[in-house]
Design the sequence.
């Protein structure tokens, strides 16, 4: 990674950092994600949330207290804050699992929110990474599984190369999981969509090239 990214540490299940922020990055702890920051010697630039998970606003020089009744989740508010600061790449940890399955779905939707605004998000789980692309492509390399979903209406011109089950200029809809349970069949695989948004999952040990 090239620096100047926004890291968001949320309150879901945390499995350690795959990427490590440096001084050029911006780190936001969302509510109880602050505990993960402290446990992993990460100094956040901002701590925000309604603090229902952390239970109390932490002793930090830059705290943003959010109301408990709001439209945005703490993670979404963190994403919007990063976008306002001009960041285009978001690495989200602690955004899957946890006690609230609804937050997992919300954070997957957040990846699509970023894709619609010309940004990219990566949502890290225990053994997988989720991301979303809109009218674009990515290349992944290595071994492991991959899955491609459309949960945003209709995706046209979907092409999958280098995977066991390939597609060429296909349409994927949000009401049928056509892209589930795929796997790498070549050293590199290309996933692209001409018109629409794709939600993509790949194994943590499968690296993304671009």
Sequence:
């Amino acid at each position: 990674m090239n620096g100047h990214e926004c890291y968001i540490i949320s309150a879901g299940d945390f499995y350690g950092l795959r990427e490590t922020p440096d001084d050029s990055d911006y780190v936001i702890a969302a509510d109880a994600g602050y505990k993960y920051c402290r446990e992993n010697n990460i100094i956040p630039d901002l701590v925000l949330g309604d603090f229902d998970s952390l239970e109390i606003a932490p002793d930090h020089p830059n705290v943003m207290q959010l109301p408990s009744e709001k439209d945005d989740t703490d993670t979404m508010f963190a994403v919007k804050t990063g976008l306002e600061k001009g960041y285009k790449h978001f690495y989200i940890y602690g955004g899957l699992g946890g006690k609230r399955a609804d937050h997992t779905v919300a954070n997957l939707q957040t990846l699509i929110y970023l894709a619609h605004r010309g940004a990219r998000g990566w949502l890290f789980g225990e053994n997988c990474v989720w991301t979303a692309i809109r009218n674009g492509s990515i290349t992944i390399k290595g071994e492991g599984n991959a899955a491609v979903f459309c949960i945003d209406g209709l995706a046209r011109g979907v092409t999958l190369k280098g995977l066991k089950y390939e597609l060429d200029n296909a349409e994927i809809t949000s009401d049928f999981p056509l892209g589930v349970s795929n796997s790498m069949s070549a050293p590199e695989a290309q996933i692209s969509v001409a018109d629409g948004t794709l939600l993509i999952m790949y194994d943590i040990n499968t690296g993304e090239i671009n």
The domain at 133-208 is CATH 3.40.50.10240 (Rossmann fold). Residues 12 and 100 are 8 Å apart (CA to CA). Helices lie at 33-39, 74-84, 101-115. The first strand starts at residue 6 and ends at 9.
